[in-house]
Structure formats: C-alpha cells, structure tokens
Amino acid sequence: MLGTVCGRMDDTQESRFLILGKWTLAPSIARFRIRAPFVARKHRAGNFVIVRIDETGERIPLTVVESDPIEGSITLIVQAVGKTTKALCAMEVGEALSDVVGPLGNPTPVENHGTVACVGGGVGTAELFPIACALRDAGNTVHTIVGARTRELVVLEQEMRECSASLTVTTDDGSYGRKGLVTDALSSLLDENPEIAVVYAIGPLVMMRAVADLAAKRGVKTIVSLNTIMIDGTGMCGGCRVTIDGKTKFACVDGPEFDATGVDFDELIARNRSYLEMERISDERCSCKTAAAHGEHAR
Amino acid sequence: MKGANPLKPAERLKIPRQHPAEQSPEERRGNFLEVCLGIDEAAALLEASRCLECKDPVCVKGCPVAIDIRGFVDLLLQRDYVGAVNKIREANYLPGICGRVCPQESQCEQLCVLGKKYTPLAIGKLERFAADYERQHNLFVDPPLPEQREEKVAIVGSGPSGLTCAAELAKLGYRVTVFEALHAPGGVLRYGIPEFRLPRDILDLEIDRVRSLGVEIVTNFVVGRTATIDELMGEWDFKAVYLATGAGTPYFMGIPGESLVGVYSANEFLSRVNLMKAYRFPEYDTPVRIGRQVAVIGGGNTAMDAVRTALRLGADDAYLIYRRSRDEMPARVEEIIHAEEEGVQFMLLTTPTRVLGDSNNWVCGIECQRMELGEPDASGRRRPIPVPGSEFVVPVQTVVLAIGQMPNPIIQSTTPGLKTSSWGTVVTGEDQATSRPGVFAGGDLARGGATVILAMRDGKLAAVSIDQYLRA
Ligand SMILES: Cc1cc2nc3c(=O)[nH]c(=O)nc-3n(C[C@H](O)[C@H](O)[C@H](O)COP(=O)(O)OP(=O)(O)OC[C@H]3O[C@@H](n4cnc5c(N)ncnc54)[C@H](O)[C@@H]3O)c2cc1C
Ligand SMILES: Cc1cc2nc3c(=O)[nH]c(=O)nc-3n(C[C@H](O)[C@H](O)[C@H](O)COP(=O)(O)OP(=O)(O)OC[C@H]3O[C@@H](n4cnc5c(N)ncnc54)[C@H](O)[C@@H]3O)c2cc1C
Ligand code: SF4
Ligand code: SF4
Ligand code: FES
Questions:
Q1: Any A CB within 8 A of B216 CB
Q2: What mean pLDDT is predicted for residues B330-350?
Q3: Does B199 lie in the same domain as B59?
Q4: Orientation of helix B81-91 relative to helix B69-77, angle to 10°
Q5: B438 and B304 in a common domain
C-alpha cells in the first residue's frame, strides 16, 4: 500500500477503477465489483462514493454495498434511471470508471437499540443492506421489509433474509410476496413488534416520508438516507443542501442519514426535480448514441 | 547593477503604459474564450523599458512571494524571455496563472514608484508575457532534479497553495505527494475561475510543470475520509503534512426562499460550468439551469465570475446585487471593468431580503432593499445600513449567492488536537505550523477567502518551515 502511493501511481493511470465483476439482478439493476482499494479499506456501513464514468460524465453518488479490503474492491448496486446510471449499467467486466472517490458521508452510528425495523424501497434495499448487517452485528434483532414495484425488481432478498429475524417482501402489483406498499407491511410489523425502537428507511423520497409519518404516529423515530443531487461530496457546492429543522444542512458532510422528523421533504422533492428536462435530453442523446452504435455494429 | 535599458529616466516616463488586446465585449459575451489576449512582444519590450530600475525596488515588497521584478524586467529587455520566466519561477512556480489572476493593482503595482505620478508598470502583464512566450515557443526545459531526500511529505489540496508548497519542497529534494479530493487538480483555479479568465490548457501545463519536479498528484482522495492525517503520518509514513484544503464551503444568507429551485451557491454554479463543463451540455453530461434574468449576490471575484458566466450561458439580463458601493468591491478592478463592458447591470447599495418562488418551488423573483453608507466599520469600509420601506422586487429565474466561503469541516473534524478558530479556519503561527507537530497549514484554509498569491505565499513559507522541521 505504501509502495503504491509514493511510487508513481498518479491520476494518469487508467485501470485504477476496473470492473472486476458484474451481475444483472433485474432488468434495470446491476451489481458491480469494482477495484477501489483506498475506499475498500475505510468503508463503513452508510458510506457512499461518487463516481464519474468517463471524461464527459457527470459525478453521481452511489452507496457502497460491500467492501473487500483484501481484494481492494467495493460492491455497488445500480439502478438505471437516467443517462449516467444507464451508461454505467451497460459497462462490462474489464472496463474501468475514470473516477471513484470515497468513502464519503458519515457512517451509520451503529448502536444496539434492541429491535429495529429496516424498510427498503426499490434499489434503496441495496443501500439498506450494509446498514441492516451492521445493526445485526451490533446485537439488534432486525425485522426487514423490502418493497418493489414488481417481482423482478426485488433485489438482495436472500442476503437480506440472512441478516434479518424476519423478512417481508411487498410488491405493488402483488406479483410476489405481500401485495401493497411497504407502509402496509410496516403497520402490521409495528403492531406485532411494539418493542421496535427505531425504523431505518431508504428508498424513494415519497416512500421515506410515508414510512416516517407512519412510524411517528406510533411514537417511533425513523432514520432516512437522503438522495440529494450531489457534485463534489465534500461540502463545496451546497447542491446537496436540505432543510432539517429549519436549518440548512449538507447531505454529503452532515448526512446522508438524518432523523426524518425534521426533514423538509417537499422542498427536497422539488429540488431533485430541478433538472428533469435536461436529464431527458441527456438520456435521449445517450439512447441515440447507443442506437447509432448498434447500427454501426449491424453493418 | 547596470540594466539593459538605454533610455534615460525622463524618456522612460514619456512612454504610456501598454494595454493588452482584448476580445470585444460583444464578441466575448457569447463565448468562453479568454477575454484578455495579453501584450505582444513589441508592447512588452516598450512596457519593460518604462521600468526605472529602482535601486530599492519597492514593487518587490508588494509581491507576497517576492519575485525579483526588476531582475526579470531587465531580462525581458535583453530579449532573454526564457531567462525572465525562469527568474520569475525562482519565486513563483505558476507564472502564467499569476500573470492572469493576481490582483496586481493592490500588490506589486500599487507600490511601483511610477504609480505616484504616472501609471505603474504593468508587472502582471509582463509576467504573463514571459510565461506565454515560453509556452508558445515550447522553450520549457525540465529542471535538473535535486538530490532526493528520504522523507515523504503529504500535501492536502491541489489549489495554488498546495501546488506551491509541493513545488518548493520538491526543489529541495523531498518526495512529495499531493492528495486532491476532486477528479482534477487545481482547486479554485479549476472549479471556480472560468476559462475566459484562465484557459485550462495553461492551468494544465503549469500543473504539469509542478509534476515535472517529481511531484506526485493523487486525485479522488479525500483526506479525512479516504485516509486521516493520523494514518498518513502513521502507516503511510509521511513525515510532515501541509494542509491547503481552501475555503470551499459556501455561506448561505439565511433569507427566506434560499432552497427554491434555481438558487445556486456560486461554487455549485461555477463548478457545474468549469469543472464539469456544463456550458458544453449535452456533449458533457452535467446540466446547469439558467434563467433569462439572473441575479448574482456579492461583489468579489466570485460574484464577477458568476455574473459574467451567466451572460455567456445566454441570460438576457444579468444583475450584480452588492450591498456597498463600487469602490468597496473586493473584486479585481480589471474584472469589474470587464463586467461593466459586457453589460452586467450593477445594482449597488442593494441587499436581497427574500427569494420568491412560484407554485412549483422555482425561483421567480428576488426582493431587495436599498442600503445607505454609514460610519466606517472595523475594516475601514463604510457600513451599509438598510433604508426602511425601500423594498422592491426584481423578476429573475436564477439566483447565485457569492457572499463568501468557509473551510469545509472534513479534516478539522477527523484530526484530533488540530486547533481551529470559531470561523472554522485552522490556526497557524507565523511559520504556518498548526497545533499538531509536523502539520502545517495555509492558504484559504488558514485565512478564510483570500487570494491566489497569498495562498502561494503561505505554501512557500510552509515549505521553508517543513524543511527546517525535518532537518531538526
Ligand atoms: C447518498 C446517495 C446514495 C445513493 N446510492 C445509490 C445506489 O446505491 N444505487 C443507485 O442506483 N442509486 C443511488 N443513488 C441515486 C443515484 O445517485 C442517482 O440515481 C443518479 O445520480 C442518477 O443519475 P442519472 O444520470 O442516471 O439520472 P438522471 O437522469 O440524472 O436522473 C434521474 C433521476 O435521479 C435523480 N438524480 C439526478 N441526479 C442525482 C444525483 N446526483 N443524486 C441523486 N439523485 C439524482 C433525479 O432527481 C431524477 O429523478 C444514491 C444517491 C445518493 C445521494
Ligand atoms: C470564483 C472565484 C474566483 C476567484 N478569483 C480570484 C482572482 O481572480 N484572483 C485571486 O487572487 N484570487 C481569486 N479567488 C480566490 C482564490 O482562488 C483563493 O484564495 C485560492 O484559490 C486559495 O487557494 P488554496 O490553495 O488555499 O485553496 P483552493 O484553491 O480552494 O484549493 C483547495 C483544494 O483542496 C481540495 N480539498 C478540500 N478538502 C480536501 C480534503 N479533505 N482532501 C483532499 N483535498 C481537499 C479542494 O478540492 C481544492 O481542490 C477566487 C476565488 C473564487 C471562488
Ligand atoms: S505574483 Fe502578483 S504580486 Fe507578485 S509580481 Fe506577480 S502580479 Fe505582482
Ligand atoms: S518600483 Fe516600478 S519602476 Fe521601480 S523597479 Fe519596481 S517596477 Fe520598476
Ligand atoms: S455534494 Fe457538494 S456540498 Fe454536498
């Protein structure tokens, strides 16, 4: 390790963030093992990285799902929702990302609360997985609910089951597990397990808000991980700012986890929609490029 | 020392100060190319011949890194342009950058004796000329490397302060590694100052020259997160550390409406455009939103850069809202003049009180209040006082806040025993030493927002102190 840094390993060296492994978990969700030795040795549950796939790419935050300090690799699970995530999901083993930086954000403060509930929505389940494991390792009884739109979008079911005392899967369309929203399942879970002290929720903003509202009615606090727009991840741009209890906080350095009670969700939802129109342009351009490339190939 | 200038002093005084060519305001409003084109060889020689070659060159006292100004001007007159730039480089390893962004008028040029009755020597433009000549004619030669020393030194942050400290330590033979959080080095020079003031090829080149001294730059490495100071000095075996992480965290005003969509900190706005090249969207993926009417709040270099960037991104009206008067603006004079020429509308003695939003939470206007100047405050500037009942609304769709920055907290909060001020800056002594042995700090991290050349001065001083510390 020491040898690498002070021997000419500077930013001109390309293969630093090599994709070592790739698995497709669902039609639009991929799991990657990526070489990132510095991140791997420091990663704690709750941390994320910021990646940039190539020279013209955007910087986007992604949660570190697992790390292997010995191999010097990290695991990311990515849902293709727009330009960058789609391009990333199209990358293959042997290709490299131009930049991966981290681990960023504060690690989850892992305590033994006794019994906790972990609620993941969509790809949020991947972000929740390391936290659920850490909570279990700290002695908590972990009850988990994972929700998805439909059966094939359920991710990490097996892994989650292994670290949970109970696992409930919900799908919006009822194609798998319990039909309905995660909040329906949470309501039952809280009824059956009044000893649940804290709820951890990660997923779409509207889902996290609904979970927090429900838990608050039962007097249980909810910790959420806020998916803001980010650029640097070091407190430099202020793009990730959120209003918590009326105060401006930066999700990248003050979070990304916060007690849901004080979060101004309306504001955050509006801010995350800032670039909708441009994201569409970027995405279409990307699709065109892919289409063109395919055409080329066919000929 | 007898100089190369054949002119008598009286003749020198008759020569007017030479002005650089510039892109016309109409033209440059529509592009991101450099505004100032510099002075050509003939003008540089004429300008250099204005220097009186003072026995006691006071100009040097005005330069925080003490460039031998008289000496390099004399080399210019001998047409030894490479000699001139190397003379500058003895004191300042970023000549092409400083010749462009240094606030000369309040440093070296302010003290130049010519300025008393005439206009001061255009020291900054001459510096730039020498650097540009060398670059355009490919005359740079890699410096001979000194004998290597064993000790490794870590520099945290690759802004002007870190780069300067790195260069000076490398010249002394130390093994230097610069750690940078972002994916590209340069600090504010990269993410803050726009290309129309500092073209990126010049920045890249001068950083490469620091590398050619044997300095290693590791990007994508956030000290405090990727490794702490204790780890760098422990298992990574760095014998000393220089902290130069700048003052990157933007202040917000705390007025209602600041979280609406369309309100940016200047850092976010400028990083999107400069670091991420949003002005070339969608070729580059990062977008930036720009309204037809844009208000930028502040009066420093950051505000000028933001408001001029807004014009270049296509805003019809770009307002600069500043609570004091023009004379009190901390920005470089050249930038203020350029902004005026480009059609920026200055709303002076004005302060925003509220950002107004529409039903989608998007900015649709800004409410402001007039100010008048009262008694001088601690800084000697007259304190602005709000005029009651003077509120008015300006319709805008984008608001950029450029009201100052403080250091980010990552290193301070992960380094036990590092003394900080209530402003979040790291406390140092005259020799840039912090409260932690072997840890030095400088630049904006120690000063709050300052200037490129002061950040460089700290880097140089720290290099001297680190050398002493490691030899002790
Ligand atoms: C701390 C954190 C951890 C995250 N972890 C994961 C993860 O493990 N797996 C995963 O798939 N996604 C994760 N995300 C979300 C991921 O960053 C976004 O999906 C991604 O940035 C979208 O980029 P795009 O170009 O593909 O889509 P875009 O076209 O840019 O946007 C599509 C949607 O994503 C949202 N979005 C856009 N930019 C960002 C941004 N910089 N940050 C957050 N949301 C954005 C937009 O509101 C939009 O609705 C995380 C976000 C944060 C803040
Ligand atoms: C828009 C703008 C325009 C300006 N214009 C001028 C001008 O014309 N003339 C002038 O003299 N001054 C100007 N200034 C001020 C000048 O740029 C700064 O004073 C100067 O850059 C400070 O240098 P620095 O090296 O201390 O820090 P910075 O330039 O801020 O560099 C700090 C670097 O450290 C990195 N970093 C931060 N935290 C970490 C970490 N934990 N680990 C690793 N790296 C980290 C940052 O990413 C950054 O690259 C301007 C400032 C701004 C914002
Ligand atoms: S670095 Fe700045 S202060 Fe020093 S001589 Fe050059 S322009 Fe003047
Ligand atoms: S003070 Fe002015 S005239 Fe005198 S040496 Fe310096 S630059 Fe030349
Ligand atoms: S991502 Fe820029 S301040 Fe948080």
A1: yes
A2: 94
A3: no
A4: 170
A5: no
